[in-house]
Design goal:
By secondary structure, the protein is of the alpha/beta class. The protein has a single domain, classed as TIM Barrel (Alpha-Beta Barrel), CATH 3.20.20.140. It has helices at about 5-10, 25-35, 45-50, 55-70, 75-90, 100-105, 110-130, 145-160, 180-190, 205-215, 230-235, 245-250, 265-270, 280-285, 285-300, 300-315, 320-335, and strands at about 15-20, 95-100, 135-140, 165-170, 195-200, 220, 240-245, 275. An eight-stranded parallel sheet has the order 1-2-3-4-5-6-7-8. It is globular, with a radius of gyration of 19 Å. The two termini are about 15 Å apart. It binds adenine and zinc ion. Zinc ion binds near residues 17, 19, 169, 197 and 278.
């Protein structure tokens, strides 16, 4: 029997792979562009949406950076984050660990703190109003030099109370993990949790090197790992979480047929796979839409859906006591 949408929505879930700038819905983008006096290269929301037809990751990233360029003030980052948190709550997300790309803002002259303060204030308000908890992970842009990442890490160190970890995103091919080995070592020494995109478009070696050279706590995507049985066995043995983004993979042509999505093989191999939305405003769906897409394409059972929800809690950076409570709550819904 098909697992209902409502059952999936009621399951407590954590979202662990979400670029806050990728949750920028066109309607809000136009509104903020208007109030900031910024011209968008599209006349209407529909014209902009029509451009969301991506040949690959880079085609998406070009639009993603153009879209975020209308974010200028603390209130803009607040509005962006508040809108995402509302959607997350509606999908039954109880905890979220969101990425932001400080270099996408500082290189336009928007201060690190302007972005962080707006995001933080919206997260606090969402917790007060809806009980949803959150963490912030700051990502380095991998198409830029490692030298440029060090001052960003210094900023994060000055805001350790609000930033739990660092990540690595943007154009993967040609920018292997070893390029960021030194800055990740420094972040690790400073006590940050570590995550990195790997194996989204890049080859299986990038996933292996992300483990060996960056020493991450989670791998973002990790799809390419499924081509190497030894690496799959290692990921299983190490209980290394993968933050998988099904609709993103589909829309960026990483998988051409959802019924062949590697999530099926990940679950069969016992990997700690989780389901996430990545850039929901661009890829056609928030976390519940992603669950529904894989439920339908991969014919996931109730047990498999429950496992995915549990994995999201286990793989989070929540304290053990909170994890235990949410795992019990999942069992209560599933009983
Ligand atoms: N930045 C925002 N979304 C991304 C993705 N899917 N891959 C790499 N970098 C990103
Ligand atoms: Zn991502």
């Amino acid at each position: 029997m098909t697992v209902s949408d409502d059952f999936i929505r009621r399951l407590p879930k954590a979202e662990l792979h979400l670029h806050i700038e990728g949750s920028f819905e066109p309607e809000l983008m136009f509104e903020i562009a208007r109030r900031n006096g910024v011209d968008l290269p599209y006349a209407t929301v529909d014209d902009l949406k029509a451009a969301y037809d991506f040949a690959d990751l880079q085609a998406f990233l070009d639009l993603y950076y153009a879209g975020m360029s209308v974010l200028l003030h603390e209130q803009d980052f607040y509005d962006l984050t508040a809108a995402y948190m509302k959607r997350a709550v509606a999908d039954g997300v109880v905890h979220t660990e969101i990425f932001f790309d400080p270099q996408g803002h500082t290189e336009r002259g928007v201060a690190f703190e302007v972005a962080l303060d707006g995001i933080w204030r919206a997260l606090r308000d969402a917790e007060t109003e809806n009980g949803i908890t959150s963490r912030i992970i700051m990502c380095f842009l991998r198409h830029l030099d490692e030298d440029e990442a060090f001052p960003v890490l210094e900023k994060a160190m000055a805001h350790r109370d609000r930033i739990i970890g660092v990540g690595l995103d943007s154009s993967e091919l040609g920018h292997p993990p070893q390029k960021f080995q030194r800055v990740f070592a420094k972040a690790r020494d400073a006590g940050f949790r570590l995550v990195a995109h790997a194996g989204e478009e890049g080859p299986v070696e990038y996933v292996r090197d992300t483990l060996d050279l960056l020493h991450v706590d989670r791998v973002d995507h990790g799809n390419a790992a499924m081509t190497d049985p030894d690496l799959v066995a290692r990921l299983a043995a190490e209980k290394m979480p993968l933050t998988v983004c099904p609709l993103s993979n589909y829309r960026l042509q990483g998988v051409t047929d959802m019924s062949r999505h590697p999530l099926r093989a990940m679950l069969d191999a016992g990997l700690v796979a989780t389901v996430n939305s990545d850039d929901p405003a661009y890829f056609g769906g928030y976390v519940l839409d992603n669950f529904i897409a894989v439920r339908d394409a991969l014919d996931l059972s109730q047990d498999e859906i429950v496992t995915l929800a549990k994995n999201s809690i286990t793989a989070s950076f929540l304290e053990d006591s909170a994890k235990k409570n949410w795992l019990t709550a999942i069992d209560t819904v599933a009983r």
